[in-house]
Fold this sequence. Notes:
Blueprint: H1 2-31, H2 40-52, H3 56-70, H4 72-75, H5 77-97, H6 108-128, H7 136-146, H8 152-170, H9 174-195, E1 201-208, H10 211-222, E2 227-232, E3 239-247, H11 249-262, E4 267-273
Antiparallel strand pairs: 1-3, 1-4, 2-3
Helix pairs in contact: 1-5, 1-6, 2-3, 2-8, 3-5, 6-9, 7-8, 8-9, 10-11
Amino acid sequence: MKTKGTYKFVLDILIYILGGALYSVGINCFASPNSIAPGGLTGVGVIINHISGFPIGIFVIALNIPLFILGFKELGRYFLFKTIIATVIMSALIDITAVFLPVYTGNTLLACLYGGMLTGAGLALVFMRGATTGGTDIIAKLVNRKFKFLSMGRVILLLDLIIIAASAIVFKSIESALYAIIMIFTSSRVIDSALYGADRGKMLFIITSKPEELSGAIMKSVSRGVTMLDGKGAYSNDVRHILMCAVRRHEAAKVHEIIKSIDSRAFIITTEAGEITGEGFKDIYTP
């Protein structure tokens, strides 16, 4: 057990380093040279660096220290420990790599897109190993704890908007703020794709008069499990047979064809499944 724990800890560190390296390239090569503040404490660091030349990484660590202290009870020891390590590694790499990484100052749109992809990929690696990079995440947790009506997502969005507005004032360019929004959006999409993209799919609820025949055809043709649910029409009080089936995106059309060929009168509800875990999809995994 001790050997397994050591291996897991070393793997965490290596992935934090890789994630920090990708994030550093995104900041030092694309965001900072083009006056793009990508939200969060790093965005504040980019603004301060522009004003005074103060290193971005050191600034991020300095601002996180009081947040780590305040968030000790909220985050828990183990999660806080991993977050501190990830934050220190990422912040240190930002300052270390700033010395020798080349900068791109060509097309600003390309800069914010590539900056967003690299920072998103770096953060996704950190999130996959059960940590965050502190900053606005901790602030959002603390605010949500005191004001339950404010979701963490809204708090983080509000803080990012404030930082973006400040960047427009400091850089004296509304375009910098607009590019920052594109970079943040790109980063968030990369994070979502990395964490959930491969396991997104469709969820189908099928109300049918031929549940056995239809479920058998789906399992045989698409090799997906089907769950039978009992229901009752609220108006007619008639018993309804409901099939529930999770499939990958490209399999949904085939399931629709199967339903049409067996029960053309079936009632189908198709929804997006943000993440599907379990047999046939992503394994349930706790880092």
